[in-house]
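Lab notebook: predicted structure, single chain.

Context: the supervisor wants predicted structures on file for every construct in the current expression panel, including those that have not yet been purified. This is the next one on the list. No modifications to the sequence; it matches the entry in the shared construct table.
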Amino acid sequence: MKKIMVVDDNPDHLHSIKQILEKMGDDYKVTCASSGMRCLKLLENNDVPDLILLDIMMPKMNGWETFKNLQENPSWRNIPVVFLTARTDDFAENAGKFLAADYIEKPFDLEDFKEKIGKVLKKNSSENI
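Prediction complete. Output recorded below exactly as produced.
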């Protein structure tokens, strides 16, 4: 079973993405975090996922800051992160693709979303053999 953490400040997005992942046909356990701080708290409590889907635009601690915190912790820095965001500017896309495992724009194409998630999880599994 693959564990995926979705981090987004919008409860509707959290619910929708959780539903999509659970219906994808794969065996995913989905945890939702409504903020970057909540994400870090779950990780501190040893709820470490195989993948983090991370929104960029969040209040208090945005996705970039959350990502920085993940990278600074040796226990978390190898968790693949896919930025999920409504930002469509070149900087966000280029930085997201360079820094993280991938970058997905909201709203996303369902097939593209499934393909990217599958690729990241497969790549991470093969690297940990």
